[in-house]
Write a structure and sequence with these properties.
It is built from 14 helices and 13 strands. The protein is an alpha/beta fold.
Amino acid sequence: MVPAEVRIAVIGNGRSVHTVTRSTAVAARGHPVCLVTLGPVLPAPGIEVRTRPLPRGPLAAVGAARTFLADVASFRPDLLHLHYAGGKLGTMATLSRIRPLVVTVMGGDVLPEQHPGGLSALERRATRRILEQASIILVKSEGLRRALADFGDFAAKARTVRWGVDPAVFRRDDAGAAALRRTLQLAPTDRVVLSPRILQPLYNVHLVVEALPRILAEFPTALLLVTEYQADESYRTGLEMLAQAAGVADRVRFIGQIEHADMPALYSLADVAVSIPDSDGLPQSLFEAMACGTPIVLGRLPVYEEVVHDGAEVLLVPLEPEAVAEVVARILRDPALAASLADRALATVRVEADLGREAARVEGFYREALDAPLPAPGRAARALDALGLLVR
């Protein structure tokens, strides 16, 4: 019989807003939750956190693995929830003897094109083992569900969960936007084009920089704000050089890593957000912009059209600077269009991606996992897991 209160040990990156907010949303359903990780952890109200310093060197790594597994076991969980089906933390989840295992696929774990050179053979094996040992696999999109097929036949245990955003947190914040505008020293006349994604080549921020001269030709006060999450410094330098060569360096502003609590204000001050990566799952930034009433331009990736539609909630573009410039300018010149996109997007995100409702669905999947037969661990496979952890 499944208990009303489920003790949940979470394994994931403690610096990931997604891991922390999803864990706290589950805890808000009345379940004890403990996040076990290595390294720094974001504030995580409502959940227990156990972390240790990141190890340096092979011997330290062995010791860290042992203490990590001890930290997980000492919580005495009924269930283990892993966020990200890969990496060393993922392998440690498979090495723990705690089952059932629920796995949230994040994107980069099953989409090899998001890694330069693709996933290594060892990383592919680690991901496959994690998926094999999972009782339930949570995916944000049908695109991610299809990606699982590259690792094995896992369709029967995949469940679609958008996760989404807390509408009490991500909402229009005009007062916060005005305050942030002053902090960033923006002029009242600046028309803000926002790049909210990770600052790495995958996300094609350079195409927005290349589009900027055409946007400025019609809107001289346009200003591109670029956030710097997980910044690739060589890529950032390249963007600065590109902006300088195009004569728009004074209209491109790199604004560092904005605190999660300030993101609603940042979206609210933007006239338009642009997100045009080569590959994507179903990004949190899309739901955040929608919830804050910010018109958003997306690349033409099929995964987006599971939730939004061109000309309704968003505008879709091919990955070409000319097309990006035209669509951004279209939103800037047409307030009625911008308002229509924002209104429809807000209505859609309330239905498709409400964090509280999605956490309730996850709770149901926990109970399903607790009732399901457990995968066989396999001693030889576990030994290979441990070896792979040491050599990766």
